[in-house]
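U., I forgot to send this yesterday:
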Amino acid sequence: MPELPEVETIVRWLRPLLTGKTVVTAELLWRRTLAAPSPQAFLETLPGYTIDGLSRRAKFLHVLLNPPASLLFHLRMSGDLRLESPGYVAGQHDRLLLHLSDGLVLVFHDPRKFGRVWLTDNPAPLLASLGPEPLSEAFTPDWLYQALHQHRRRLKPLLLDQTFLAGLGNIYADEALHRSRLHPLRLSHTITTTEARRLHTAIRQVLQEGIRLNGASIDNVYRHGSFQTRFRVYGRAGKPCLSCGTPIVRLTIGQRSAHFCPVCQTRS
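Result:
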């Protein structure tokens, strides 16, 4: 579930608390959490690294290490990172524990086991296929219009494609499409320049608002934010549209849900 605003919130919270700390030991509690390297190499290599900082790329949380290396987390459906006090004992759904030089423990908690961790000297190949960041200078209305017209795909699945645009997931795509008055099944190459500008503005607005409110908390997986109080369509099937009063519709597109208003977001 964690999307760009949730990952950005975690990065901003952890950055001042982790920077300058050294990894003393690591406990890998579920082997498949680690995507690379091998468990043995990971457990032998990571201790001794100092954390130089944290950043985010798309939905990846990037821990910058010294000597130069990268520890990357992808939270997927249910992952979360938190700090625990010295002496912490692993809980049922904890998958990785990093014991730090000040005694604190960085815990990767992941009930559904979809999250993954990488330790690498070169993160570029892992991140190379990602599209532009929607809050970056590279993401402009003109770029979006041109990129949409390079495809003949339905809008919602295209916006979820991380090679097209990095960081959007179900929640923020639904909210952006409603604000821009675009149907999730609209074909991308039919979007006009005016509609592309509306979509560009809406994407940035929902992401910036999500970050300001520390993301959305919709279950017990991610509990830090309050953007869920601002949902216009996501998770509101059958409830009245906040713009026109029409009941919100939920449909399934390629095994993913989409929520929209059939009056405000016509398909034509």
